[in-house]
Every structure is written in C-alpha cells, then in structure tokens.
Amino acid sequence: MLCRAAATQARIDGPVLIVGDPDTGGAAPDLPAAREEARIVYRRFFPQARYLGRAGGAPAGPASGPPGGAGSAAEVEAWLADDSETGGVLHLACHGEVRDDQASLLLHGGERLSADRLAGATRNGRRPGLVVLAACRSAVSGRGWDEAFSLAATFLSAGAGSVVAAQWSLPDRATSDVMVLFHEHIAAGRPPADALRRAQLALLDRPVTDWAGLIHFGR
C-alpha cells in the first residue's frame, strides 16, 4: 500500500462530494461546527460539489448542479461506486466511531457505514484524489493490531491519492477551524500533506488535542 500510494498522482480536480453533519436520528449529538465547516468548504472552495446532509444555510447544490440528499450510507456508497470519473474530492464532516471491532461513519438515520462495507463500495469504483475524514477516530483500526482496518486505510487500499483522518475523538469547533485552513492551503496549490501541516502550525497556540489528532496518509 505504501508503494502504491507513493506512485499515485492525486488528482484533486474532478467530482466533489461533501457530507455535512447528517441527521443521525438521535444516535449521536449534532455537530453544528462540522455543519458550518461543510457549508464553508462547499461555498468557498467547491461550489460545483454535490452536498449531502444538513445544509446549515447552504443550498443542496447550485441550481445547475447535481441534487443534494440527506447524507445516507447508500448515497455515499453510490457516489463511491461510480467509476465513470476518477480524481476529485470527498469531504466527510460527520461522526466516526469504532464499535464492536468495526470502524464506521455514522450517517443519516444513525446508519453505520463500516470499513468493511466501504471496501465493497470502493473495490472497483471511483478513486478520489483527496479524501478528508473530518470524523472522530477515522484513522483507528476496528480490529487487529495496526491500522489495516481503519476507514483511512480502506480508502487508500481502494486507490485514493491522499487521505486525512483522525487518531482520536476530535472537538467539533477546533476540527472545523483546521479543516477550513486546510482547504485554504489546498486552494492555494499546496499538496495535502503540506496543507495539513500549515493548518496545524497556525493553531499551535491551542491545546494539542485541538489539532494534532489529524494526520495525512498517502501522496
């Protein structure tokens, strides 16, 4: 996987999917800062994107663009399974968890999109240039003694060029701040690893738990 990731050219240009704080139906607390983060990323950096989840003031999509949605597991899987285009960006601002030996994203209605299920959806599908998992513990393995079954590793093994994910439970507001700065550097032409580093350096005056949990994998 290391060799494959090193050889991958991460094409960020292409289709974009943004998922902002889907309504979990009470399975987890709302994430108002994540919702705002997704709205800012959509409006400021990727206005052509498809937007899923609670909009928090952002329209579901431009009038001429693709429709939005609730942010269900099926919607995310369908986007990932579409192999008609490669490259692009997937930004997930939602809950992540590790439960019963499964690393999962918590999406609309409280449905869990597990690493195993993601592996099936991405096996022969889209290969995003950049996957941003602004979700708690998305770099943590659900089972085993290394990161092999984490959400981040699942996307890397499916051919994603770069993945940003979290090693622990992240504070909602601080994560939103890091993510907006990260995308500002991406828009300025910085590669993902450097963009994350610069975003974190800007927040060194804050508690280390606010920014150090996010790490970069891949190209």
From TrEMBL:
Pfam families xref list: CHAT
Boundaries of every CHAT domain copy: 10-218
Domain of life: Bacteria
Protein name, per record: CHAT domain-containing protein
